[in-house]
Design goal:
about 90 residues, mainly alpha, about 0% strand
Length: about 90
């Protein structure tokens, strides 16, 4: 992976994390850094899942891949919030 690929993954991860957080109703009690980390992880895992289902490379915008990534980010934000709440 090149530097541009890493930078792109970070930017996409930020956007995915924020969208995943917005998909959850109510207030989430985690910081923006956790949101970004969850978003980056969700973007990477979501791309792998979309590739496994052969929907990662389509013409135009990959809406299915984006939906998978946002869904994973939402699940990740809820998971991190619950883990941090137990402390």
């Amino acid at each position: 992976m090149e530097i541009s690929g890493i930078f792109t993954a970070i930017v996409v991860g930020i956007v995915i994390g924020i969208l995943g957080r917005l998909a959850i109703p109510g207030r989430q009690r985690i910081g923006i850094l956790w949101t970004i980390l969850v978003g980056i992880l969700a973007a990477l895992v979501g791309t792998a899942v979309a590739g496994a289902f052969d929907v990662a490379d389509t013409k135009g915008v990959d809406w299915i891949e984006l939906a998978i990534q946002i869904g994973l980010a939402a699940v990740g934000v809820v998971g991190v919030e619950r883990l941090k709440g137990r402390r």
